[in-house]
Every structure is written in structure tokens, then in C-alpha cells.
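> forwarded from #structure-qc
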């Protein structure tokens, strides 16, 4: 521990300020009161999903964040492997990870994740290339996020030869403000009264310990994103996340690599089936509506093991892996979709597998903190087999998030009946009834767009002005779906029932209202159900309109001749694919 104490502050008398104030330990008080201030500042903001503590040293500050905000994933990073080892041994919480990394070589050593809050206390003065560090922070901070920064400053001019040789620079107030202003539009500072929670430092009044609050600390917001014209696109691309790699090494030593170097770079048409499957290659309103359900689900996956059941084009599994999940297992029936996902999304805490949802294998019971399935279960022929398996795999305190089509109005019935690959034509009450047989708690959420924003599922990415955070998820009763149209039926499902309360295996499903399940279509019988669309004018109009808009987009982007092969591909896909998203 002596080696750690020589280089880093170690709070050997605990994490309470009182004994350090009593002993007039100025260094300890300065270190701890900054984190005390940071805790109150973060608590006054929307609680972040993740926090990065840059140059965490012995790890006590990261620990304080993880303890105060148990639903937030906290990562402490430091260049010193001995400090990281000390932190891992002495400050342990389920939502806390420590990484040995260098902020000037971010992607190589820390990872590619984006953080809602980054904390950098007593760091920048040690770094010879401060611009590289700040540019790296910008690349990995949420646009709505905040940087909490502290560094010695207050002299009349910059000191380029500080008394302590470990410091490369000590800023003047004016110089530090000028430097930070290159990277952030908003800087909340103590010397002009804008610093939040500055009253925390009032505790030092009358103690004989001063804290010179001249631009130290500060809260930086509204990042100004900078591109480096001297970096090639390949050099600028983020590398695999070391954070996820270390998690994967510890928790999944047998995990197989997700990248297939020989996989083709599937085109949008090849993966989407003429526009039917959602993919990140065509980020229009429809894509963001689907992605918003993943965004909603991130609150339940922080630091947890996730099963994405029916991962489709893979974008959502990747999103969960980036937004706080410890490890994501994504399973999908389509081999093409899995190959596409493996080619586009490689992360050490993410694995894609070909698997039938009626026969999920390879996982121990009660192994998942969250099971997610969006716009999938309506395609599964024997969906109760999946629900029973989900009951088996979900932890006792875990959460399952399910989204299914809102089959309530006549037009909803028509569109879903006309879609030959929607097999379970179930109302919200029907789904609720079946889930209730396996789980004790089911919450319903209404899904819609924030008022005042446009929504058009048939627009192009260029016309899209929304993102996944622009959607609203309002807790409602299952009956509410019948009075206010919702984009989807969202269930948050918890509390697996005792095995003795479950229906018998193979027991027929009891249907209510007009709900029913129909047989799986095949290439031999697919034509007749497709023609049944003509019996439902609203559905026929919707489907034709979608195809027409897609054809217009293809013609505009690639020319008229490209429309014919795209149409042929779409028809073949409709006939041969067993399940679509």
C-alpha cells in the first residue's frame, strides 16, 4: 500500500471528512470534499446511466459514486496498474468496474463507450498532451452529459514549471477558462456564482482549511465536437472496448469471438427484406421508434446479463451492450441476420447466435438479469414454449421487457391478419393473461412520441428529425390500450411464479376476445394468405404504400433499374423467410 500512497491519495481513515478536518489534513480534505461536491451535483441532475471517473487512483471516489447511485454503472480508470489493483481489492460493488487505461490513448486502453457523466479530478495538470485528452473526453461524453473537472489554478499566469514535478502545468483562471471554452459551450464556475452545489464547500468555514474556488471545480456542458482532419477514417474509428473485454474475460472465459472476418458486408436490401426488417443502415422514424424500446429497457439492464430474444439486425443488442449491460447474448432464428450482426457489431461483451426461440439452449436457469423481446413474439409459432423458457432463465429479481403489436382497432386487426408472418394475432388482454400465468407482476406502458414532433414511418433517413430519446413511455393499465392508441404494447414483467403454479406443459392456450394463433406459412402456402390482404383494404393500402415509398427511395438513391431486382428480392423474401422483423 505504501507505493500507492506515495503516488495517489488513499483515505486510510475512511471516507468521512470529519477526522481529516479534525487532523487538519489539507490534502485529504481537498480530495474528499471534491467528491462530496460531485455526489451532490450529480444527484441534482438527471441520474446518469453511467459515470466514468478518469484517473480514479485508489478508487475511493468511484466507490462513492457507485454507492450513492446503485442503478448507475460506474467505471474508474487509471494509468497505474498498482492503483487499479488496489481499487479492485478494497472498493467493491456490483455496479463498479476498474480499468487500467490511458486517457490519451482512449480507445486502445479504455474502450468505445459513451458516458452520461465524466469526472476528472486532479488529472489534466499531469498530462503532457492536454488537447488529446479533452478531444477524447468529447468523443465519449453524451451530448446532454456533463464533465466535472478540477485542477489546480488561480495564479496570475500559467505556471509551466510547478513546484511539484508531477504537474506539467498549473493554469491561471483566465487561461483554464479559455482552454475549456474550446471544448464546451457552457462552463459553470464558482467565481461567478453559477457552480451548482457550491454550498458543500461551506463546511470548511471556520475549520482553518481553505479551498481556493477559482474555476476549481467546474461543470462543463454542451460539448463542441471536433473532428481531426489529420486522422484517417480507419484511424479515427473506435476500437473494441477494453472495459467490456475485461468483463468478458472474467465472466465469460469460454465466450467465442463475435466477428467473422469472412462475413459479407450485407446491404440494406439484403438484410431488410425489401424494407420489412429494421436496420441501422436505414435510420428513419421507424428505426428510431424500434430503438426507443431498447432505450427504455436500458434502465433495467445496468451491470446485468441480458438475453435479447429475437435480435434481428443486431442494432438493439449492440445498443444495450453500449448502454450499461455487462454482457448481452443475442439469439435470432435467421442465419443471415446473425451473420449481418456479427459483421457490423463487434464487442467483447456481445455475442450473436442462431437459435430458435422455441428451443433456447446453452444457458443455466436463473442466469439473466433482463430478457428483452421486441416485435418478435407475434412471429413465434409456439410462443408459450418461449414464455416458459423465459420464466426458467429470468432471475428471481430480474425483469423481462416485451413489445408486441397493438391489436385493438379494426385497422390493427386488418394489418396483422394481412401480414402472413404474424402468427399470434393477440390482443393486449390476451398477452397479459398468458404472461400472468408465469409471472406475478406485469406493468403496462403506453408508447408514443413527445408532443409537437413529427412521426412518419415511411420517411427517409434524410427526412428524420427525431431520435430514440424523443419517445414517451407512460405507465398505464392494460385497459388503457383500448382507449388511447399506442405505437406498441410494452410489458415490463417481473417475479417468476413458483413452479407449482405454472400451467401444465402442453396445456392448450385459452383465447379471449378475438385472439387466435395460425399455422406457420411456407413457400408452398404463402400465396393464398398474401392474397387475403385484398380482403382488408386498410391493410392492403398500408402495405402497398410502404412498398411504393421504398421503391421511390431506391429509385432516387440508385436509379430506376435498381427497383426491379429489389422488388424480386422482396417477393422472394416474403415467400421464403419463416420469420420477419
Amino acid at each position: 500500500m505504501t507505493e500507492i500512497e506515495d503516488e495517489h491519495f488513499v483515505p486510510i481513515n475512511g471516507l468521512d471528512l470529519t477526522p481529516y478536518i479534525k487532523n487538519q489534513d489539507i490534502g485529504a480534505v481537498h480530495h474528499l470534499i471534491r467528491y462530496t461536491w460531485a455526489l451532490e451535483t450529480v444527484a441534482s441532475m438527471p441520474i446518469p446511466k453511467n459515470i466514468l471517473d478518469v484517473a480514479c487512483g485508489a478508487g475511493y471516489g468511484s466507490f462513492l459514486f457507485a454507492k450513492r447511485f446503485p442503478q448507475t454503472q460506474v467505471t474508474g480508470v487509471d494509468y497505474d496498474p498498482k492503483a487499479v489493483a488496489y481499487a479492485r481489492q478494497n472498493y467493491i460493488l456490483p455496479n463498479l468496474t476498474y480499468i487500467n487505461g490511458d486517457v490519451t490513448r482512449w480507445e486502445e486502453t479504455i474502450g468505445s463507450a459513451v458516458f452520461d457523466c465524466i469526472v476528472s479530478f486532479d488529472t489534466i495538470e499531469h498530462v503532457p498532451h492536454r488537447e488529446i485528452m479533452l478531444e477524447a473526453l468529447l468523443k465519449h461524453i453524451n451530448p446532454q452529459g456533463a464533465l466535472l473537472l478540477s485542477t489546480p489554478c488561480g495564479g496570475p499566469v500559467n505556471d509551466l514549471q510547478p513546484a511539484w514535478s508531477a504537474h506539467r502545468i498549473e493554469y491561471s483562471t483566465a487561461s483554464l477558462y479559455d482552454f475549456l471554452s474550446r471544448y464546451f459551450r457552457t462552463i459553470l464556475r464558482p467565481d461567478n456564482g453559477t457552480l451548482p452545489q457550491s454550498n458543500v464547500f461551506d463546511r470548511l468555514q471556520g475549520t482553518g482549511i481553505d479551498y481556493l474556488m477559482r474555476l476549481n471545480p467546474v461543470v462543463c456542458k454542451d460539448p463542441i465536437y471536433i473532428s481531426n482532419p489529420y486522422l484517417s477514417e480507419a484511424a479515427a474509428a473506435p476500437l473494441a472496448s477494453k472495459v467490456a473485454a475485461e468483463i468478458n474475460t472474467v465472466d465469460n472465459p469460454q465466450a467465442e469471438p463475435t466477428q467473422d472476418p469472412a462475413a459479407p458486408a450485407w446491404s440494406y436490401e439484403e438484410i431488410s427484406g425489401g424494407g420489412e426488417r429494421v436496420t441501422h443502415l436505414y435510420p428513419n422514424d421507424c428505426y428510431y421508434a424500434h430503438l426507443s424500446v431498447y432505450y427504455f429497457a436500458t434502465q433495467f439492464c445496468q451491470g446485468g446479463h441480458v438475453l435479447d430474444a429475437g435480435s434481428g439486425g443486431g442494432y438493439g443488442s449492440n445498443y444495450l451492450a453500449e448502454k450499461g449491460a455487462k454482457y448481452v447474448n443475442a439469439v435470432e432464428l435467421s442465419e443471415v441476420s446473425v451473420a449481418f450482426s456479427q459483421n457490423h457489431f463487434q464487442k467483447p461483451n456481445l455475442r450473436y447466435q442462431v437459435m430458435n426461440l422455441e428451443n433456447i439452449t446453452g444457458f443455466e436457469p436463473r442466469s439473466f438479469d433482463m430478457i428483452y423481446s421486441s416485435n418478435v413474439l407475434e412471429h413465434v409459432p409456439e410462443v408459450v414454449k418461449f414464455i416458459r423458457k423465459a420464466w426458467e432463465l429470468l432471475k428471481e429479481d430480474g425483469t423481462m421487457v416485451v413489445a408486441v403489436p397493438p391489436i385493438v382497432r379494426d385497422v390493427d386487426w386488418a394489418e396483422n391478419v394481412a401480414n402472413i408472418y404474424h402468427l399470434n394475432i393477440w390482443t393486449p388482454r390476451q398477452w397479459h393473461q398468458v404472461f400472468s400465468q408465469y409471472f406475478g407482476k406485469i406493468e403496462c406502458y403506453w408508447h408514443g412520441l413527445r408532443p409537437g414532433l413529427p412521426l412518419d414511418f415511411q420517411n427517409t433517413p434524410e427526412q428524420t428529425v427525431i431520435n430514440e430519446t424523443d419517445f414517451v413511455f407512460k405507465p398505464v393499465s392494460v385497459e388503457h390500450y383500448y382507449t388511447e392508441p399506442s405505437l406498441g404494447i410494452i410489458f415490463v414483467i417481473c417475479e417468476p411464479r413458483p413452479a407449482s403454479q405454472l400451467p401444465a406443459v402442453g396445456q392448450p392456450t385459452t383465447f379471449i376476445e378475438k385472439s387466435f394463433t395460425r399455422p406457420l406459412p411456407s413457400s408452398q402456402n404463402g400465396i393464398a394468405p398474401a392474397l387475403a390482404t385484398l380482403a382488408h383494404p386498410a391493410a392492403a393500402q398500408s402495405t402497398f404504400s410502404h412498398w411504393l415509398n421504398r421503391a421511390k427511395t431506391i429509385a432516387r438513391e440508385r436509379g430506376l433499374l435498381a427497383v426491379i431486382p429489389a422488388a424480386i428480392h422482396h417477393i422472394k423474401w416474403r415467400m421464403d423467410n419463416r420469420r420477419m422483423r
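QC bot note: The longest strand covers residues 394-404. The mean pLDDT is 81.
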